Amino acid sequence: MNILESKMTYLLLWIVTFIAFTPIDAAEFKIKPKDIRITINQQATFNLTLDEDIKVPVNVSFDIPHPDLLKIEPKYLIYQKKSQVMIKVFGINPGSLVVSANVTPANQTIFTQAFVRVTIEKSDTLYHISNIVGWIYFLAWSISFYPQIYSNYKRKSVVGLNFDFVSLNIVGFLMYGLFNCGLYWIPEIEEEYFNRNPKGLNPVQLNDIFFSLHAFAATAFTIAQCFIYETGDQRVSTTARIIHGIFTTIILVSVILSIINYLTWLDFLYYCSYVKLAITLIKYVPQAYYNYQRKSTVGWSIGNIFLDFTGGMLSMLQMILNAYNYDDWWSIIGDPTKFGLGFFSVSFDIFFLIQHYALYRMNTSLSILLRSVRSNNVQTRQLNCWTAAITKKHRKIYERTYPALLVHPDGSSINVQYFEPRKIVVLPLDLSTLTEAERRARIERRKPKTVVKIEEELEDDFDENRYVNMRKY
Question: Membrane-crossing residues (predicted)?
């Protein structure tokens, strides 16, 4: 009997606890809209609604994490009947916070969705400027892929574009696209995110999905160019393959753990984002080192760098504008990931600009000049399987440069790195720099000279009749 009594006591306690913490009615408090943006010393309103009548009156108050930022009127309400009340919000100081409704007694209604996110800004003009800056850097980053694609198409070559950079880039955008598409389009993952962040917003917007998918497609097109155009002896390095192997192992293990329900699919997407973060930190290193090895930036589009630099600077500018407008400098100092990534990318862009315009400027300029001279003065041979040659077939593009003596039209010479193995390269003379007399003299020397042939007159007094009698009949 003692065992039976203990079981009955335990069951009774469980029933009482369940009744005490379960809402008697299905009535629910809701707040609309969920997001409010106001300026200092201005007001806005939201509606607090009870969707059904309840038997017991309840008291409603508002939990304000930072009372110095805003003021709410009325502060306290009593509900019993189905009704809707308009609540006024006054902005005092800039910032952002979540205002939640507290209901007592708590077991009478459901009020998990009774909250509103309030943002108080210093200036509405700064808000619109920040939006414009955001769209500009979004466009700059979106079109930054095309200068490299056009350069490859124009040169019919990808020599100068590092394959490690391209391979890391496409993996990074693939991970970024998986994170955005999964969190935006899969309801189960989105629900899991809101279970962890019940008062948060989905961090993925439609423009994030467009950018990630567009970036993946543009990078894939660049890789396709690497299979079509001249590549030299480039290949993906062993170091890059090891890095790809590490990332692949992480993703495969995460997928397996998610399939057996050891990890949630939201955690899998977070691991994808971590891989993207790591790739962003290291992807520029191979290209910078490759430029250093070649002592040239030919083949690496500087237009891509300008657009990426513009996007990175405007991204950090938007963060600074928002931090000032909302007085939220902790968004930069406390969570430096986004700002740090933007600063890291901009730093590499500055380094690439220094390489292009300062360190390897002479090699790049001479390479462009000498290529134009070769294209204007050298006839290309159309070689096929029916063509026989007594010399080797010359390459169109060489992987590295060679020391050569560059002779100027005035006779001076300098040592340069030429893109073909030649000892001496002579630049053509610009006739526009000559005087009129010099130009005429040089043109006269170019004209073909008339060859005067002198024919000698030979005296021929041979008479065949003198030898008639010697004929034999």
Answer: 126-146, 166-186, 209-230, 242-262, 268-286, 298-321, 341-360
C-alpha span between 185 and 177 (Å, rounded): 12
Cα–Cα distance, 45 to 55 (Å, whole number): 28
Helix, strand, coil tally for the chain in percent (to 5)? 50, 15, 30
- Residue 136, judged by CB atoms within 10 A of its CB (0-12, 13-18, 19+), counts as middle
Would you say residue 439 has pLDDT above 60? yes
Residues 6+ away with beta carbon under 8 Å from 11 = none
Question: For residue 322, how many other CB atoms are within 10 A of its CB?
Answer: 20
Domain boundary among 337, 366, 395: 366
| Cross-strand bridge partners of residue 30 | 49
Q: Are 156 and 371 in contact (CB under 8 A)?
A: no
> Residue 29 is inside which H or E element, if any?
strand 29-32
3-state secondary structure of 222: helix
Residue 100 near residue 115 (C-beta atoms within 8 A): yes
pTM (2 d.p.): 0.66
What CATH code is carried by the domain that includes residue 106?
2.60.40.10
Domain of residue 56, residue span: 29-121
pLDDT over threshold 60, residue 376:
no
Contacts by 302-306, CB closer than 8 A, 24 or more apart:
302/147, 302/352, 302/353, 302/356, 303/144, 303/147, 303/148, 303/151, 304/144, 304/145, 304/147, 304/148, 305/349, 305/352, 305/353, 305/356
Instruction: Quote the CA–CA distance of 106 and 103 in Å, as a whole number.
Output: 5
What is the pLDDT at residue 364?
58
Q: How does DSSP assign 326-359, residue by residue?
A: TT-THHHHT--HHHHHHHHHHHHHHHHHHIIIII
φ and ψ of 99, to 5 deg: -100, 125
Q: Please give the Cα distance from 415 to 352 (Å, whole number).
A: 25
63 & 190 share domain = no
Ordered alpha helix ranges (H), 144-264 = 146-155, 163-185, 187-196, 206-228, 238-259
